[in-house]
Amino acid sequence: MHTVREGCFGILISWALLATPSAAQRLPSDRAAIPESTNAVPIYPMMLREAGVGGIVRVTFIVDSTGRARMSSYVVHASANDLLSNAVKNVIQRWRFTPARRANRLVVDSVEQLVEFVPPSTEELLHIAPTVLSREALGPGRWRLAVGGPARTTRTGPVSESSHVAIAEAAMDTLLASLPVDSAYPARIVCLALGMSGTPLQPPLTLLRDLSRPTYTVVAAKRCPPTLGSPVRVMTADGRPPAPDPPGEDPWVFTPLVPRTVDDATVLIDIAMSHATTSGTYRCVAQRDVSRAGGWRAGCRPGRMAMH
């Protein structure tokens, strides 16, 4: 029993239950507390990722016999940044552990956790969500988790041309869903060209049809109305032109550019955009997803935008 007495109040702290037995004392059934593999990963703050700020957060805490962290015992011993410290604390309080066992009894245990945040190696990789880079045991009750990255780009060659349209569709589907809603223009026009070969290509009709929604119509760029209020006339199945769409806002013009491979399941793609007096580029990351019809899902964020 190790005790500490402080001042006239005689504060008594007992560490008997936290003592780690030596190898000679430890029974074959003894074990330290083990974090579950399904525990959530700390959220890497985007502002730090964008600034290239990473580093290690080292904390200790007690895990009780039910497998929960006692946050009253939580101590930060070292940290590269306060925002990283907060990210670690916010997630550890929700973690579950396999409780420590001593002499066939579940007991409390002291745990040391190191979390390393690794910023992406290039700006373009900012668009890929952070992931677990490694998990490892450093010893009984000591664990290390690395999150972030990807630490480097793994090039596996160009994306096959057969995947270009599917990747563009996944990225465009995400972008179109984020277009601002304006009740003044219920029938909007989106013009699309594929710029994956260095020169704009006309998109397949099936792509135009699949991307169109009740709130907007996607047409090939060559049929894009040049000015505000110039309607697009689409031939009906029987060859007769329907009534023109009512005048509306300037069309949105999107051109997906050449995809760039990160790894076998991840592709980066830029999409040039112009609308009225604004032009710029969206940066998207597409990842394979067998649960989706096209086999890809994508996320996009604005890149460089300019007024002209």
Name the descriptors.
disordered N terminus; elongated; 308 residues; 5-stranded mixed sheet; 7-stranded mixed sheet; mainly beta; 4 helices
Q: Which series of helices and strands comes N to C?
A: EHEEHEEEEEEHEHEEEEEE
Mean pLDDT: 77
Estimate the global geometry from the Cα principal axes: elongated
Low-confidence spans: 1-24, 228-236, 241-246
Alpha-beta content class? mainly beta
Rg over CA atoms, rounded to whole Å, is 28 Å
Distance between the termini: 76 Å
List the total number of helices: 4
How many extended strands? 16
Description of the molecule:
- This protein has 4 helices and 16 strands.
- Strands 10, 11, 12, 13, 14, 15 and 16 form a 7-stranded mixed beta sheet that branches. The chain has a 5-stranded mixed beta sheet with strand order 3-2-7-9-8, with helices on one face. Strands 1-4 form a two-stranded antiparallel sheet.
- The chain has 308 residues and is mainly beta.
- Mean pLDDT is 77; it is low at 1-24, 228-236 and 241-246.
- Helix 4 (205-211) links the parallel strand 10 and strand 11 (216-220).
List the helices and strands and how they pair.
Layout: E1 34-35, H1 46-51, E2 55-63, E3 69-79, H2 82-92, E4 97-98, E5 100-102, E6 105-107, E7 109-118, E8 131-139, E9 142-148, H3 161-177, E10 188-192, H4 205-211, E11 216-220, E12 252-256, E13 260-263, E14 266-275, E15 278-288, E16 296-307
Parallel strand pairs: 7-9, 10-11, 10-12
Antiparallel strand pairs: 1-4, 2-3, 2-7, 5-6, 8-9, 12-14, 13-14, 14-15, 15-16
